[in-house]
Amino acid sequence: MVRLTTFLILFLSALTATFANDTEAGGTLRGQVTDPSGAPVSGATIRIKGTIRGTVTDEKGHFTLTNLPKGGYTVQLSGVALTPVERTVEIKANETLALDIAVRETVQQLAEVKIVAARGLRELERLPEVDGTALFAGKKTEVINLSQLDANLVTNNTRQIFSKTPGVMVWENDGSGMQVGVAVRGLSPNRSWEFNVRQNGYDVSPDPFGYPEAYYNPPMEAVEQIQLVRGAASLQYGPQFGGLLNYVLKKPDATRKFGFETQQSAGSFGLFSTYNAISGTVGKLSYTAYAHYRRADGWRENSRYGIFNGYASVQYAVSNKLKLGFELSRLYNESQQPGGLTDVQFAQNARQSVRGRNWFSTPWTVPVLSAEYAFSDKTRLTWKVHGLVGERNSIGFVRPINTLDVPTNGVLAARQIDRDHYRNWGSELRLLTTYSLLGRDHTLATGVKYFNGYTRRRQLGRGDTGSDFNLNLAEAAFPRDLDLRVQNVAYFAENVFRLTPRWTVTPGFRLEHLANDISGRFSLNANGTENRVSQNSVRNFLLLGIGTEYKLLPTTTLYANLSQAYRPLLFSDLTPGAVTDFVIDPNLQDSRGGNLDLGLRGNLRNFLNFDVSYFRMQYNNRVGTLTLLNEASRPYQFRTNVGNSLSQGVEAYVEFDPIVAFVGRSKAGYLSLFTSASYTDARYTTLRTVGVSNGQQTETSLRDRRVENAPEFIGRFGANYSLKGFTLTALLNRVGKAYSDANNTETPAANGQTGVIPAYQVLDVSATYRFARRYNVRAGVNNLTDERYFTRRAGGYPGPGLLPGDGRNWFVSVGYKL
After folding, report:
1. How many CB atoms are closer than 10 A to CB 253?
2. Rounded to whole angstroms, how far apart are CA atoms 606 and 460?
3. Phi and psi (nearest 5°) for 153?
4. Burial 210-247 (b: 16+ CB within 10 A, else e)
5. DSSP letter at 82?
6. Confidence bin at 72 (pLDDT 50/70/90)
7. Are the C-beta atoms of 188 and 170 separated by less than 8 Å?
8. Of 195, 253, 440, 668, which one is least surrounded by beta carbons within 10 A?
């Protein structure tokens, strides 16, 4: 880690020196933004109209743009709750022009909101109608600004991070925070695979069309914001039903040539974490890089881990119109998997583990090239080319948890090894243009996405009988050895029609071409002969959608959206099981359906913020495996589309500051009370099940059974107190009862894999103190009352069995920013 950090510093220092002479080639624009009282406004966006050049104001309201070619420009100022401002300037070569901007008014009275809201309300934000080359008008969107949270960012505590996004279900079986497992609207949280997971707008999952499990997520200390768009994201981003989950990393420091940030943390169970980042802007060049390392022994036995994340980004403004960039993300981790428990074991001691030889690792490398070109102030083009070189490696004793991992005749059983290698690349070209029609401006966003994915999947390998992490085979071959390929080409377009100053309508479509190819060996017979598979599937289809929003008041909006969505057939759906009598339905179809949103969002002056909505999600063509009888009355396994489900309910977020509402300003601090809650009724409308008993085939329906892993109620209730640089947050997380299988089994199985997931509640307390402008101290206690609970029952890795959530634990973190 030290070597990599040193390398990044030397590399970027050399790079900045290379381009340093660019600062002499043009003129410089400097200035300060202030509010009506003369106080500096930080975080305001400054852009040169019709170009790619821009920056943000620092904590003193200052901004600087260097190396601007001589000529006339229009400077645009914008920001949250700010009324946009434009100023015309004339830049001369090798001269500095001063431009101070006093903001006279805002959408919500900036003098009150900008200052008071920052101390009282720490509300959830929404994406604007137009953001870069994407459209979000009429969609249900949420933006989580991590700098505004009192949360345990050290271990990516997901229930705290998503505390103000209603309806987010979290699987809490991984205290390391290495993989984030979240879902909405009754979908499965399994490694967030029902979301299209992205970082800075590009895919980071192994294969969003064949294996969408998100094994990679950046450390939250490096994240500036998380963008969440519910199901209506399907038109611009494709799969999945959950919508878009996009991690936006911290941008380069635009106010200085060199900036440095560090955060050092410690906590329970040997937790140690170090995060170090550099960034800056030198002329036309901007850069940022970080190195992060974290390790701990874990709350449960046999759950130690170590994880390294590295990232570097360089962007260069070739001209005022064109900007080029390169990013590289690197992850390496090793984690011991304590395995699942039976219900009896959980009741006896939830911290115990009966698996001491299970390990997991996911090395991940993501390179990205990007380009942004501004044709004019109304037309902009972006292009990203992204790749992935990654692996998923596991070794362990994976039999049911009630099968003891003990020596037989003094010898332990050989462990099973499973390995995936991913070699993927994709490209996305997006164009956004604003045009005039019938006296009004309208905006069109369109683009083309290409993805080519290759996965080599080797499973059921025979490993050693040891207990450390290694991937050494005891036999030469893996019984299962498959080549899995996906190719996707998609064209999409959405258009915001501004029918009146208050009313917009946004129709759109997405045209998909999707091809899967599977070949190789899926099992070995006892005599050594191979069972092979070779199949491909090509599909073309169209998704349609339309959204609308109407401003009832300047700060209150009614929105609605109806969009079709789909989930592609996964590799696991198209691969036969490890038995001879297994048939894949030749007419197997992708899951299709759609999402409906109808909601009201906005704020009342500067003390109330809200977003309340009704949703309805239809999920058709769910894939399952049936046991049928063939013509010879012998049973065989048949994988096909088995049924449909419907999820509907209410998602509500409300945040209120009673001190601002009734008193106004306060020298004693401010108090923010918030609730994010959801009610979800997720049921199967049809679900075919078939069984064979005494040579007879019987078929039943699980109609009206609840969808597994879909609690009816999820509620998070919090209070935030702030006084100058100090903030304190208490968060109560309550989650209702859920089922782990479609049969809605009440009585737990002996192996802990099926049964009820009981309701639970967890209390967290976190605090932050910022002082001397550059320093911070953070601390918190997670699960303050030391509740025993679990959120998941697993049928396979990392179980099998029920997987406990962590008990009480604490952290302390000290940071500095230059």
Report:
1. 24
2. 59
3. -75, -15
4. bbbbbbbbbbbbbbebbbbbbbbbbbbbbbbbbbbbbb
5. B
6. confident
7. no
8. 668
Closest CA to 292 of 216, 224, 219, 366: 219
Q: Which of 200, 171, 169, 173 is nearest to 185 (CA)?
A: 169
Residue 454 has pLDDT above 80, yes or no: yes
Helices (H), 275-423: 343-348
Q: Is 6 helix (H, G, I), strand (E, B) or coil?
A: helix
Q: Which residues of 635-665 are buried (b: 16+ CB within 10 A; e: fewer)?
A: ebbbbbbbbbbbbbbbbbbbbbbebbeeeee
Where do we find the tokens 């209390």? 763
Question: What mean pLDDT comes out for the span 214-243?
Answer: 94
Spatial contact of 162 and 168, defined as CB atoms under 8 Å apart:
yes
Query: In the prediction, which pLDDT does 353 show?
Result: 96
Share of the chain above pLDDT 70, in %: 94
* Sign of torsion over alpha carbons 226, 230, 236, 238: positive
Residues 357-391 pLDDT 10s: 999 999 999 999 999 999 998 999 999 999 999 99
Handedness of CA 299, 300, 301, 304 (dihedral sign): negative
**CA distances (Å), origin 686, targets 385, 633, 683, 703:** 41, 26, 9, 5
β-pairing verdict for 364-374 and 379-396 = antiparallel
Residues 195 and 165 sit within 8 Å (Cβ to Cβ): no
Query: Checking DSSP bridges between strand 582-584 and strand 635-656, what pairing results, if any?
Result: parallel
CA-CA distance, 109 to 288, in Å (whole number)?
35
Quickly state the pLDDT bin for 110 (edges 50, 70, 90).
very low
- Work out the pLDDT band at 784, boundaries 50, 70, 90: very high
The encoded tokens of residue 618 equal: 């239809």
pLDDT digits 0-9 by tens, 176-223 = 888 899 999 999 999 999 999 999 999 999 999 999 999 999 999 999
Give the predicted TM-score (pTM) of the model: 0.91
Cα gap 149→416, rounded to integer Å: 42
